[in-house]
Amino acid sequence: MTKSKVEECFEQGLLKKIKSNLNYAEQSVKQAEHFLDEAEEILKTSMKDMAFIALYNASFHAARALLFRDGVKERSHYCVCKYIEEKYQLQELITLQQSVILDSLRSKRNDIQYSLEQSELEEDLNEIFEEVSNFIERVKETIAKGKKPVQ
């Protein structure tokens, strides 16, 4: 039987079981909202790369809130995306669109942050802003309702 990406992440120590921590989850949501506010301000300027990074950070912290709530510590942004996809999107606790955006933001953020060449952002950052905002709201609702994925 083939292992899932999430199982591989746990085996490699990139995801680790910890005690569920609702306080950390709530703090991570606040951090997500902070980065979303920062992105909104940056979007008023011409600094697209920085706005994109802030949008990714907002989505990452929202996703991380779910991991904290589930008792999972992350050491890999890739594994966070795979966890959200497998544990939340496949069980329809978040939308396919939100899962895809999280992972595509992660990938593009890597290009922006680590490439030796300037990036050419063609994405509509205002549209991404709305998607990230919706994702954060969905995370807050999921945590408030106590919905957890089937393990």
From TrEMBL:
Gene3D superfamilies: Nucleotidyltransferases domain 2. InterPro entries: HEPN_dom, UPF0332_toxin. Residues 25-141 form the HEPN domain. Belongs to the UPF0332 family. This is HEPN domain-containing protein. It comes from Candidatus Iainarchaeum sp.
